Amino acid sequence: MEEIEFPFPFKPYDIQQKFMKELYLTLEKRGLGIFESPTGTGKSLSICCGALQWLKDHVQKEEEQLEKCITQLKSEISSQTSNDDWLQEEYEKIKKTQVLAELNSKLDHIKKRRTYFSDLKSRVAKQKANLSIKESVRLKDFNKKYDKEKENINEENKEPIAEDHDLILEEFEEKECSDDEETEEKLNDNNTKIYISSRTHSQLSQFVGEIKRTVFNEDTRVVTLASRQHYCINPDVAKLKNVHLINERCLDMQKSSTKSTAVDEDGKVLKKTKTKSCTACPYYNQSNVTKLKERLLVDIMDMEDLLKNGKELKGCPYYASRAALEDAQLSQFDRQVYNKNITLKTV
Question: From which residue to which does the signal peptide run (predicted)?
Answer without folding.
Answer: none
